[in-house]
Amino acid sequence: MHWSFDVVSLDEVSERNARLAKDKKYQTLLDSGKHLWVEGSLRDGIVKLVN
Fold it and tell me: I need a labelling partner for 10 at 20 to 30 A (CA). Which of 33, 47, 48, 50 fits?
């Protein structure tokens, strides 16, 4: 699986992560799919596209 999203600044990424960490519905959804994750496979990356 792969997720991507656009943000204006890296501060926005931190704010979004903080909100999601507090979101009980989101955390429940993540917990329900834990059996789908491969141990050690989670990686974050930041890419800046230049026009």
Answer: 33
